[in-house]
Design goal:
The complex is a heterodimer of chains A (about 290) and B (about 210). Chain A contains 3 helices and 20 strands. With about 290 residues, chain A is mainly beta. Chain A has 2 domains: about 150 residues, no CATH class; about 110 residues, Cyclophilin (Beta Barrel). In chain A, the strands form 4 sheets. A 7-stranded mixed β-barrel of chain A has the order 12-19-16-17-14-13-20. A 6-stranded antiparallel sheet of chain A has the order 7-6-9-4-1-11, with no helix packed on it. A 5-stranded antiparallel sheet of chain A has the order 2-3-10-5-8, with helices on one face. Chain B is α+β, with helices and mostly antiparallel strands and about 210 residues long. Helix content of chain B is about 20%, strand content about 30%. Chain B has 4 helices and 13 strands. In chain B, a hairpin with a 3-residue loop joins β1 and β2. Chain B is elongated, with a radius of gyration of 18 Å. Classes of the chains: A mainly beta (about 290), B alpha+beta (about 210).
């Protein structure tokens, strides 16, 4: 292992390597995967001078701690959190120089769920089908970070961006998800369709990279029987037999047999990825573009 | 054929049967091949084909509605042979469901030529059709097994599948194979992809015709 590496001192609850995922392989049963909050991942890459597709770290709620073996530029974005180098506070959302052997601490999220750690050169684990993303549904890509692991880094590409601070809106107190209806809205009673678009839901603690699970009034089907397996898209709102909607996120299965009542606009999914359990959710029907 | 919009940039094309879905899938692949269709994903399934990542879904939908999809020709291409030991814990149950002996059930399975109708559930997991009429309705297990070893050969409904890696599973396990269904280091990573022809070849002298 060369010096261009990052030692994992504290992996945190769930920290994974993510890039833009491996779209184009759904016909083989391969989920798209990739960062759940793509604008945040792209921003930290830009702040450290990486191309937008470089692999970053995605933390979950409680951050992580890392020790680079070589001097690097890092930037932490996504969910706001305290950041420190060798115990000294440094800015969040800005490029920060970390000397070789220093301890970079990414603290617990003050709002939101997932912070992103961009490192100059990018995390250079072996790609699988063109992506370094950890796919928690099917186990492709590197395993989630573990204490003591060593992550290789790529060569730094360009000088860090001349951006001192990149502000971003914090996670909303209420998650408003715009939804186009169908393709299987006709599997639900008219009352269920009205309920879905008018009653409040809440983000369930059972949410993960596969799906944002929502607690709230169950959606009742007007048909019995099983739907034959069909292809699933990012943002699909699948309704399992318990009637509670699940919004498919990056690690969603490529096919599924539960009816999809609607599809959340891709632009609203980064906010969904940052909604903490308990956040109120409203599904707002919109016209297809 | 019914074209259902999915979100802002996808279409789900519903057909009347697995055979029509196969013909549509092949037609869509031909169109993409000759540049007439620009799309990120073409995902066949039981009776549908999903087109995901379209710039102008309304235009593609109009083109599909007017389309004359020719019936798919008989499957061509090399047959992938998967060696199998018909030693699965559910072989007796499947045989009973079919009303034959376990050895005869293995013979029936090994005599069929399968085709990968679609993939899903896990990378490299193919849903294979090809069992003769009357043998294609095995129910799923009432309680899924929490762990099936990689290489488990299993049946459910009209499908046969081979588990690419250890995983939970509700299908009826009739055998096992050492074939590697999924290897990210290999090109292609998946042994089976939609359209692949497959035969199961009995090992250990069991179920030979």
């Amino acid at each position: 292992m060369t010096d261009r590496a990052l030692a994992v001192v504290r992996a945190g609850a769930l920290t994974t390597v993510q890039d833009r995922g491996r779209p184009g392989n759904a016909h083989l049963g391969v989920p798209r995967s990739g960062a759940l909050d793509p604008p945040a991942a792209a921003l930290v890459n830009r702040l450290v001078g990486n191309p937008p597709g470089a692999a970053v770290l995605e933390t979950t709620l409680d951050g992580c701690a890392l020790r680079p073996r070589t001097p690097v530029t890092v930037a932490v974005g996504g969910a706001p959190c305290p950041v420190a180098v060798d115990g000294r506070p440094v800015p969040w959302g800005a490029p920060v120089r970390v000397p070789a052997g220093a301890l970079l601490e990414v603290g617990a999220a003050r709002g939101g769920v997932r912070s992103y750690v961009g490192v100059s050169g990018g995390v250079a684990v072996q790609p699988v089908l063109g992506s370094r993303s950890t796919d928690l549904l099917s186990g492709l890509g590197p395993p989630p970070l573990a204490d003591g692991a060593l992550l290789p880094l790529g060569p730094p590409a360009t000088p860090a961006a001349h951006v001192d601070v990149a502000p971003r809106p914090g996670p909303p107190a209420e998650l408003v998800l715009r939804v186009t209806p169908g393709p299987r809205a006709d599997w639900f009673t008219p009352e269920a369709v009205r309920t879905f678009s008018s009653r409040p839901y809440r983000v369930s603690p059972a949410s993960n990279r596969v799906g944002l699970r929502c607690d709230g009034p169950p959606l009742v089907r007007c048909r019995s029987g099983e739907l034959a397996s069909e292809g699933m898209v990012l943002g699909a709102v699948q309704v399992p037999p318990d009637g509670r909607p699940v919004v498919f996120l990056a690690d969603h299965p490529t096919t599924g047999g539960y009816p999809v009542i609607g599809v959340v606009r891709a632009a609203d999914l980064p906010a969904a990825a940052q909604a903490v359990p308990g956040t109120p959710v409203r599904f707002v029907p919109v016209q297809r573009r | 054929m019914r074209v259902l919009p999915v979100g802002d940039d996808a279409l789900l094309v519903e057909t009347g049967s697995g055979e029509e879905a196969r013909a549509l899938h092949e037609e869509l692949l031909r169109r993409r091949e000759r540049g007439a269709l620009v799309v990120r994903e073409i995902v066949p399934a039981a009776r549908t084909v999903l087109l995901d990542g379209l710039d102008d879904p309304a235009r593609v939908a109009a083109g599909l509605a007017a389309a004359d999809v020719p019936p798919a020709p008989a499957p061509a291409g090399a047959v992938v042979e998967i060696p199998v030991r018909y030693d699965g814990p559910d072989l007796d149950g499947v045989a009973a469901h079919w009303g034959v002996s376990p050895a005869e059930a293995a013979r029936i399975h090994a005599a069929a030529e399968f085709r990968v109708a679609f993939c899903g559930f896990a990378p490299g997991f193919g849903y294979l059709t090809g069992l003769p009429p009357g043998y294609d309705g095995v129910p799923r297990r009432a309680t899924p097994r929490t762990a099936l070893p990689a290489g488990s050969v299993a049946l459910a409904g009209p499908y046969t599948g081979v588990y690419p890696r250890a995983s939970p599973g509700g299908w009826q396990v009739v055998g096992s194979t050492d074939a590697v269904l999924w290897d990210p280091e290999r090109v292609p990573a998946a042994l089976l992809s939609p359209g692949t022809r497959v035969r199961f070849v009995p090992r250990d002298g069991e179920g030979t015709a």
